Amino acid sequence: MAKAGKNVRRAAVSALRAWAKGHVYADSLIERHAERNHLSSQDRALFKAILTGVLRHRSLLDHWIGLFRKGKLDPETRDVLRVGFFQLLILRIPDHAAIYETVECARKPVQGLINAVLRKAAHCRMRLLRELPEVELAIQYSHPHWMWKRWKKLFGKDNTVALMDWNNQPAETYYRPNLLNPPPEGAAEPANITEAMATGHYYITDPSTSHAPELLAAKPGETVLDACAAPGGKAIHLAGLMQNEGRLLCMDSNEKRLPRLRENLIRCGVEIAEIAAHDWTEPAPDELKDSFDAILLDVPCSNTGVLRRRVDARWRLQKNDLQNLVTIQSKILSEAARCVRPGGRLVYSTCSIDPEENIDLVTRFVEGHPDFVLGESKQILPFQDQTDGAFAALLHRNPAS
Questions:
Q1: Smallest Cα–Cα separation from 268: which of 248, 288, 286?
Q2: For the residues 234-258, what does the mean pLDDT come to?
Q3: Topology agreement, domain 2-135 and domain 177-397
């Protein structure tokens, strides 16, 4: 039992070290380090909870560590302490397990330090939790200060606190029935992800992802482009709306993502899809111009609407990144718009809650492209709608253009 517990904490520290080097996203680290450490399903669940929890609560954990350890800490020792503090103060794992197993996974020269700091924290646990409301809000909810200030200006203090609290909750798993291969009438929702994936009766996606395909309202027999399609959730929804009739071209800028896209489409019974790679920051292919009745354009974005799911994105995103993203998004929209036929339509969508990436961008696009008209738009906000954040806007091309 001790060995398994030690492996969980060691795997968490190792994954945090890999993440800090900036090469790998947290989602990828979970599977890799669980397999490398031969974790059982139970230990894998604890490992995932520790890794994602430490990333979610990083600022608060560092605040607590600073109360007991003044001075500089090397990065690995800090990560070990983060793992220990998270178990003690947030997961509320019993002291003996949290402290002993965490100390055991540290390097010998710092085990004494880690043991002393964690024991002090355990002794002061009730005081630390009682004083939590007095901690600065950006630290208490572990979000970058610039993000807190920006959102407070956009949404107000109370909504921003609710948003940060939402982002710190474990994300639920939602199963959407597959329109092309619906579950038998009266069938119970699948018990787990493996079961849902195997049957093809469901696919896994947050309710917020349905707004863009439904706003596009693809019809049977139409020629439709999903320009940024991988991993395929929205494409599956589009094919369902089309009743597997017509043509659905699924493209993505990353060729490495196409096999998984193809696999998901096949598993869910999509028969009308063609798959190809294209980077829409490059000029639109001549053969695709003026070709499509409808285009779904789910562009790369800041992910500020899905920080509950992408636990490390808040720390990777920098304030200056937003303007760079807007430049890329504007380029993609301009190129994809060339492929809408006269009288056709395009839905621009993101998983962002930032107006610069959303309504401001499409408004500016329409101002510079008089052949397009902005129709309905929808901004989904987690603190308001209780789902992931998302944006979708419907653009109509003038039939005479």
A1: 248
A2: 96
A3: no
Distance CA 239, CA 180 (A): 8
CA distance 209 to 187: 24
pTM over 0.85: yes
In terms of CATH architecture, what is 177-397?
A: 3-Layer(aba) Sandwich (3.40)
Contact 261, 275 (CB under 8 A): yes
| Side chain identity at residue 99, one-letter code | I
Tokens encoding 136:
């600065």
What are the structure tokens assigned to 262, written together? 């193809």
pLDDT at 373: 98
The pLDDT value given to residue 5:
59
Per-domain boundaries in the chain: 2-135, 177-397
Q: What is the mean pLDDT of residues 243-264?
A: 96
Neighbour-count burial of 329, counting CB atoms closer than 10 A to its CB (0-12 exposed, 13-18 middle, 19+ buried) = buried
Rg (CA), the chain: 24
pLDDT band for 204, please (50, 70, 90 cuts): confident
Residues whose CB is less than 8 angstroms from the CB of residue 150 and which lie 6 or more positions away in sequence, other chains included: 319
The mean pLDDT of 377-383, rounded to a whole number, is 97
Which residues are CB-contacts of 119 (< 8 A; sequence separation ≥ 6)? 95, 99
Q: Which of 340, 351, 349 is nearest to 373 (CA)?
A: 340
Name the least confident of 76-80, 171-175, 249-253, 315-319: 171-175
**Lookup: tokens for 324:** 């760079």
In 10 A of CB 191, how many CB atoms? 8
Domain 2-135 sits in CATH at: 1.10.940.10
**What is the rounded CA–CA span in Å between residue 373 and residue 363?**
9
State yes or no: pLDDT of 194 exceeds 80: no
Q: Which residues pair with 251 in a beta bridge?
A: 276
As a whole number, the mean pLDDT across the chain is 94
Rounded distance between C-alpha atoms, residue 76 and residue 68, angstroms: 17
Contact 116, 156 (CB under 8 A): no
Residue type (1 letter), 375: G
Q: What is the DSSP letter of 201?
A: S
Residue 299: both structure tokens together = 């562009």
Amino acid letter, 66: G
d(CA 209, CA 171): 14
- The tens digit of pLDDT for each residue in 94-144 reads 999 899 999 999 999 999 999 999 999 999 999 999 999 999 999 999 999
User: What residues are annotated to the active site?
Assistant: 351
